[in-house]
Amino acid sequence: MFNALIKNLKQRGALADADIDKIISVLKVRHIKKKKNILSEGEQSNFMFFLNEGLCRYYVIDEKGNEQTIELVAEHNWFGDAKAFLAGETARLNIEALEDSHIFSITHADLNRFYDEIPLFERMVRKIIEQYFIKALERIKKVSRSSYSAQERYKEFLKSHPKLVNRVPLVYLSSYLGIAPETLSRLRQQFTKTA
Amino acid sequence: MFNALIKNLKQRGALADADIDKIISVLKVRHIKKKKNILSEGEQSNFMFFLNEGLCRYYVIDEKGNEQTIELVAEHNWFGDAKAFLAGETARLNIEALEDSHIFSITHADLNRFYDEIPLFERMVRKIIEQYFIKALERIKKVSRSSYSAQERYKEFLKSHPKLVNRVPLVYLSSYLGIAPETLSRLRQQFTKTA
DNA sequence: AAATACACTTGATAAATGTCAAGAAAAAAT
DNA sequence: ATTTTTTCTTGACATTTATCAAGTGTATTT
Known about the structure:
The structure is a homodimer of 195-residue chains.
Chain A: H1 3-12, H2 17-25, E1 28-32, E2 37-39, E3 47-53, E4 55-61, E5 67-74, E6 77-79, H3 82-87, E7 94-97, E8 101-107, H4 108-117, H5 119-143, H6 150-160, H7 170-177, H8 181-194
Antiparallel strand pairs in A: 1-8, 2-7, 3-6, 3-8, 4-5, 4-7
Helix pairs in contact in A: 4-5, 7-8
Chain A binds a DNA duplex (30 and 30 nucleotides) through residues 147, 149-150, 169-171, 179-183, 185-186, 188-189.
């Protein structure tokens, strides 16, 4: 059940097996049905999640009442409302399963306890955060080029997430790319013609 | 000379004065003239910087040869090409001083040494990275709403960076916001009329 | 299998913003 | 102080993309 996570942890740092067992023992397991929220705005959110299986999206609801998809997360990634988690605030975003999903969660309290008890764990987490930070910076690099056309943004997504393109429903992908669903539909048509 | 940085470090964690001295003793000080690059694409970049005084921007050059401003950094912030720094790669972005600037730099080697020698320092850096990560996520939240109009993006910037609006030249600000300089100019005109 | 709901496509039109070009204002250099 | 350079503004026009509306196709439910 925890194979993917264990592999993930072992790749990232030289934790003792006993420490890994310790960490895994505190995890809560949840199954989320497609279209259900894993986390909703306003909820207390003192945990981070590991997506063992499935696919999900982050979204916020803007002033006009529209859902804006701001992030897509595929299996074997950590996710959650990092800001709410770290600041002890309630969630400012919603996380919805786009496929039936299988997740593990760890609380803030447990995480802090492990920082004290397992120094190598704190180092590992620091490195994990560094990597996620870099990912975020890369995303900014791309999105901030919003002078880029809709086509260029879609192409870029195709290149960097080839496997997600067909898993993420068009409405959410268009929202993620910041374009109208109709526009994305037309772009796709163009592409299949050319290719 | 290091007052701002010392204050910054003390706010972030309970480091011993001796440790702070140790950290400061390895810093290199540089003065950068306005319009000069602090870091250029392709350069080795095994240091991070603390901006003691001044203002700078990150930019990349796209396929069309246009500069795209992707980040703005004001004084008393850490900055650098985090990806290149952490992965030991050469820089993929340029950092230019928009005002005469005054910076300190720390090498990757020194940082890693301090992680081992000063456990509280590693914890502090973890927290700093967490904060910068959250900042990056908030930026994504905003920019990914690029379905938002140019006006809305400018308003948002006004609200979140009121002090920068008049320090950053229009061309760079427009590039940062992902809109044409002419469009930004017209937006400003509208705003001054209304207000 | 039929009915219903949901997701995507297509067309017509409008609105927003980019592009090009020229001129005004401000800043920097002499 | 004058000249030169740089930055910003303004106008006209083209292009992209959003919006609205209707229809088609695909899943899901009964």
